[in-house]
Amino acid sequence: MSALLVGSTLLNTAQAGQANNSLVIGTSQEPPNINDPWRTNNLVIATEITWFMEAHLIGKDDNGDLYPEIATRVPSLANGDYKIVKDAKGNVIRNSVTFSIRKDAKWSDGTAITPKDFQFWLKVEQDDRVPVPTREPWDKAKITVQDADTFTITFDPPYLFADQITSAVGLNPAPSAAMEKAWSAFDAATKNLDSKTGAKQITDEWNKFIAQFTTSRGLPKVVSGPFKPTSWRAGNSLVLTRNPNYWITPKGGADKYLQTVQYRFIADTNTLKVNMLSGQLDALSYVGLTFDQAIEAQRSERGKYKTYFVPGATWEHVDIANAGARAQSLGLTDKRVRQALLYSIDRDALVKALFQGKQPVSNTWVSPIGKLYKKDAKDYNFDAAKAKALFAAAGWKPGPDGILAKDGKKMSLNFATTAGNKLRERVQQILQAQWKAVGVDVNIQNFPSTVVFSNDFAPRSAEGKWDLFMYAWSNDPSVERGDLWASQFVPSKDNAYAGQNYPNFKDADYDKLWNDAKTEFDLSARVKLFDKMQAIWTDEVPSLPLYFRANPYTKVPGLVNYTYTAYSLYPSWNAAQMGWASRGAAETYPQK
To answer: What's the Rg (C-alpha) of the chain?
Structure first.
C-alpha cells in the first residue's frame, strides 16, 4: 500500500477523532496474532493492544503505584492480604497473597469473573504441553479458593514480587466456564504424547484449542478489559470498541471518554511519520517513530501535536547466536570473538550522532533507572586494536581481502532486524561499516516484525536462522529478575521454542546466582547478587548492549490520559480513562 493511499484511507477517520470520541493510533508493527491469556505471543505490540482488552487484578500507574482493578484492594503486609513465612533463621520460605474480586467485575459477555477463572489460568499455565514463554513464578504456585469472591495464591518457594502481581507478571483470568470443556478435549488428545516426538501434534491441538475462543485473525471473543475487538484487516487496521460490561466508570461517565480505538499498521516508519505530521493520526503507539524521526517531528509541531521523550527501560541490543554448528564455525561460541565484536563498535559516537546523547549507552541489560543496575559494569569502550588482538587470539586473521578467516572459513555474519525501522537500519549500516574496518564481513538480512518474532526465526539461532539479531526488550525496572539469561529459558523443540534466551546463553554460575536472587528479599543482598550476575554477563557477552531508549511518542493536544512511563510500560495501561478534553474527559495523568 502506498503512502498516498494510506493517507487517504486515514484522513476521514482520524479527523473525526474528537467529534465521535474515537482514537486512531499509528504503529510500525503488526502482531502475527493477539495474546491469549497465557502470553504465548510475547511481542510488545501484541501486549500493548491486549491491555486495551484485558483487566488485571491490580495495575501499576505512571508513578509505579499499584491500584486495584479486578481486585477490591491492593494487598499489603499492613492490611493482611500479603503474608510472609520465615524459618528459624529468618529466611523467607513461603509467601502468599489474597485477593477479593469485585462483585461487579464481569467478562464482556456479562458473566462474572470468579476465582475459578484464575484457577483455570494457573492449571493451564503449569501444564508442560502449553507453549508459554516461561512458567516462572507460577510453576510452584497454588491457588486456594476461600469463598465465591476470594482466593489466596501461595508461593512455595516464595516469589519475590508476590505483592506486585500486575499485568507485567501474569495471572490473567481465563473464561473457565467457556474453556473447560475444550481444555478437556485438548488433554484427552495429547495426554499420551511424548513432548519430543509428539511436539507437532501437541502444538496443533493447542492451536485448535485457542482457535475455539478467537476469530480467524486470533482476536479473543470474550475479554475482561475496557475495550473489545471488533475487526482486524491484515496489513491495515484493528478496531476496538468500548466494552459496556467493564465495571470501572471514569469521572463524569464513560460516554465522555473514547468509544472506539483504531490501530493503523504502517510498517515503514517514514510513512508513519508523514501520516502523523499531516494530521491523519491522533497518536502513536509505544512502537512508533524512531528517535531521529521523533526529533524531526518535535521541530515541526507548531501546536498541531506534541512529541514526548520518556526515559525508559527498553533495551536496544544485538543478540549473538551462541550455539549450533554455524555459530561454532563462525567462532561465535568463543567469548573472545563476542568481546571483540563489542570492542569493534563505537557506541558513544553512535548515541551522540543519532540521539543527541539523550539515550545512554548500556553495558548490561539492567536499566540505569532500576535499583539493581551495576554502575561499574565492564565498559567495552571502542578499541579497534584490542578487538583485532582478541580476534587473533581466537585464531581469526585477515585474509588477502582483509576479511578475517580461520581454517578456510571467512567471518561473514548475517545481521537481521525489523524491516522498515529506519533507525535500526541506520544503526545496522554504522555497525556494518565499523565491523568491516576490523575484518568482519556483515550481511544485512531484514524481515518484517511478523517474521523475525515468529517461532520460526527469533528462537532458532542454534539452527542458523541468524548470527546477529538487533531488537529491544521492554521491562518493568521494579520487578527485574534476570530471567532473560537463565539457561532454562533457552528456546528449543522441547519447549516449542517458547523460551526467550535467544542467544542460547548457558552459564551454571549465572543460573545459581539467578536462583538465589529470586528468593532474596533483602534489597542490599539482592544488589550484590545482581552485581555478580552482571559481571558474568559482561564477561561472556551473549549480546552486544547498545543503549536504553528514551521512548518517543506523539499525540495531538486535547487527548488526555494517553501516557506512560518505565513503570506503567504502555499507554494502554489507562485505556478506560483515555478521552478528549473537548468531550468532557478529565485528565488524571498528565504526561511528565
So the answer is: 24
Residue pair 154/94 in contact (Cβ under 8 Å)? The answer is yes
Question: What was the pLDDT predicted at 592?
Answer: 76
- Distance, in Å, from the CA atom of 281 to the CA atom of 96, rounded to the nearest integer, reads 45
Alpha carbons 298 and 284: distance in angstroms, whole number: 13
Is the distance from CB of 367 to CB of 548 less than 8 angstroms? yes
Placement of cell 531521529 in the chain? 292
Judge whether 54 and 224 are in contact, CB under 8 Å: yes
250 preceded by a cis bond (ω within 30 of 0):
no
Instruction: Say which residues have a Cβ less than 8 Å from residue 480's Cβ, sequence separation at least 6.
Output: 366, 367, 370, 372, 530
- Judged by average pLDDT, the poorest of 11-20, 66-75, 152-161 is 11-20
- C-alpha neighbours within 13 Å on the C-beta side of residue 142: 9
Please give the residue that has the higher pLDDT: either 277 or 181: 181
pLDDT number for residue 2:
30
312 within 8 A of 472, measured Cβ to Cβ: no
Q: What is the pLDDT of residue 578?
A: 98
Q: What's the rounded mean pLDDT across residues 48-69?
A: 94
For residue 468, give the H/E element and its range.
Answer: strand 468-473
For residue 505, CA distances in Å to 281, 333, 371, 426 come to 41, 10, 24, 27
In DSSP terms, 548 is beta-bridged to 315
Residue 7 has pLDDT above 50, yes or no: no
pLDDT of 481 higher than 90: no
> Which sign does the torsion angle of CA 175, 563, 41, 133 carry?
negative
> CB–CB of 398/340 below 8 Å?
no
Q: What is the mean pLDDT of the chain?
A: 91
Helices (H), 16-157: 44-53, 115-125
pLDDT in tens, 326-358: 999 999 999 999 999 999 999 999 999 988 878
Helices 291-299/269-277 angle, 10° precision: 20
For 447: left if phi > 0, alpha if psi spans -120 to 50, otherwise beta; the answer is beta
Q: Locate all alpha helices (DSSP H) within 126-222, ordered by sequence.
A: 176-190, 199-211
What is the Cα–Cα distance from 103 to 263, expressed in whole angstroms?
Answer: 32
Q: Which residues pair with 416 in a beta bridge?
A: 469
pLDDT of residue 168: 65
pLDDT tens sequence across 126-138: 999 998 877 888 9
Chain CA centroid to CA 7, Å: 29
SS3 (DSSP) at 10: helix
